Structure formats: C-alpha cells, structure tokens
C-alpha cells in the first residue's frame, strides 16, 4: 500500500469507529456489519482489493467483505457499481401490483372518482417509489425513466386518458409534480438538513469537514 492507500484505509476505519461510537452514545448497538466495495472496477480495483481491506475491523473484529452481491441497507439495495438497478427493480416489483390495483378500480362508469384515485396513488404507491430517493437520484437515466413511466401510467389511469395524451398537460391538470422534480427537492432538503446538523455529531463531522 502506498501513502494514499494507507490514508484511505485509515479514513475508512475512522468512519466505522465514529458510527459505532455514535450508536453507543445514542443507545444503538450495532451487532452486525458488512462491507461492499464501490468502484468502477469492482473488486479488481488496485486500490480496493480484498487484501488491502483486510485491515478494517468492526468492534475489534475483522469486517466481512462482500465481493459481489448487492447488500440491503435501511431498505436500499446497493450494488458494487452503484447503478441502483437492483433497488429500482425491487421498487418496480412492489409498486407495479399496486398500480394494477389502481387500474382495476378506475372504471369510467362505476369506478372511483379522480380525486380518490389521486389520493390513493399519492398515499399508497408514490411513497414506495420515493423511499430514499436521494440515494438513487444519480442512477442512470434509463433506470430512473422506468420509475417515471410508472407514475406516467398512474396519471393516465387517474385521468382515464390514452398513451397518446400529453403527459406534461396531464401532470398539470392533476397539479402533480414529476418524480424528477421531487427527487431534486428531496436531495436539496437532505443537503439543507446536513448543513443544519451539529458538527460535533460523529456521523456528520465528516460532512462538515
């Protein structure tokens, strides 16, 4: 390991120790940990090969290193290259059946009215799509487009329009923000919250430095 690599390992270890200390200070005791290498080169990265990371520890025990399998952290599925594909596919698998249920109660002559369908979407389907959206906001556009398409389908169901109708006009009629705009707002709110946090907090000290 060169000096820069040694510094990286030291920084990683300090971050782990800070999180453990924060947990103990706030009555949260972490009994399990797992590390996943995030790199464009994956586990073959010269800076992040397993032998270099074997020095990391969690509560004085060697930190298990995940070589390739995605890990789930607080409901967010993280893959080695941070494409967020696994997470977005998981979101779609949960939200699509609910969209189908919304479609099944949207009959023109007997179904729920527009306002009821809109409330059902915003309370029952959209929260699944938007959970932890700042974490996946930088995913490839092709992946985010899948989520946008799901909301677009919901908008058409609510209004009873065809796929040829203007999706921009449809959002305006419902006064519904696009998911892209809401992702930007969520990321901005998170940025503001982090800037307002106490710099003495072990988990936010790195952010303020």
Structure, described:
The structure is a single chain. This protein is 56% helix and 7% strand. With 209 residues, it is mainly α. β5 (71-73) and β6 (76-78) form a beta hairpin. The radius of gyration is 22 Å and the shape is elongated. The two termini are 25 Å apart. The model has no long low-confidence stretch (mean pLDDT 85).
Give a short synopsis of this structure.
The protein is mainly alpha-helical and 209 residues long. The protein has 9 helices and 6 strands, in the order αβαβββββααααααα. The two termini are 25 Å apart.
Structural shape = elongated
Structural category:
mainly alpha
Can you give the helix content as a percent range?
Answer: 55-70%
Radius of gyration: 22 Å
Count the E strands: 6
Q: Which residue ranges are poorly predicted, with pLDDT under 50 across at least 5 consecutive positions?
A: none
Largest sheet: 2 strands, parallel
The overall pLDDT average reads 85
Strand order of the largest sheet: 1-4
List the helices and strands and how they pair.
Layout: H1 3-25, E1 35-36, H2 50-53, E2 57-58, E3 61-62, E4 65-66, E5 71-73, E6 76-78, H3 85-104, H4 114-130, H5 133-136, H6 141-159, H7 167-174, H8 179-196, H9 205-208
Parallel strand pairs: 1-4
Antiparallel strand pairs: 2-3, 5-6
Helix pairs in contact: 3-4, 3-6, 4-6, 6-7
Task: Offer a few descriptive terms.
209 residues; mainly alpha; 9 helices; 56% helix; 7% strand; elongated
């Amino acid at each position: 390991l060169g000096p820069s690599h040694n510094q990286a390992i030291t920084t990683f270890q300090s971050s782990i120790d800070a999180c453990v200390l924060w947990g103990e200070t706030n009555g949260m005791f972490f009994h399990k940990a797992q590390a996943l290498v995030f790199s464009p080169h994956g586990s073959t990265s010269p800076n992040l090969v397993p032998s270099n990371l074997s020095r990391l520890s969690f509560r004085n025990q060697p930190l298990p290193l995940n070589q390739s399998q995605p890990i789930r952290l607080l409901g967010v599925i993280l893959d080695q290259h941070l494409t967020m594909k696994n997470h977005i596919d998981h979101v779609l698998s949960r939200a699509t059946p609910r969209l189908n249920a919304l479609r099944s109660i949207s009959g023109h002559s007997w179904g729920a009215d527009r306002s009821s369908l809109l409330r059902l979407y915003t309370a029952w389907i959209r929260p699944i799509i938007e959970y932890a959206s700042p974490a996946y906001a930088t995913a490839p556009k092709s992946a985010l487009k899948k989520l946008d398409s799901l909301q677009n389908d919901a908008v058409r169901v609510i209004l009873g329009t065809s796929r040829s109708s203007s999706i921009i006009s449809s959002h305006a009629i419902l006064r519904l923000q696009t998911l892209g705009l809401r992702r930007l707002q969520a990321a901005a709110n998170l940025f503001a919250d982090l800037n307002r946090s106490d710099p003495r907090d072990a988990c936010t000290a790195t952010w303020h430095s």
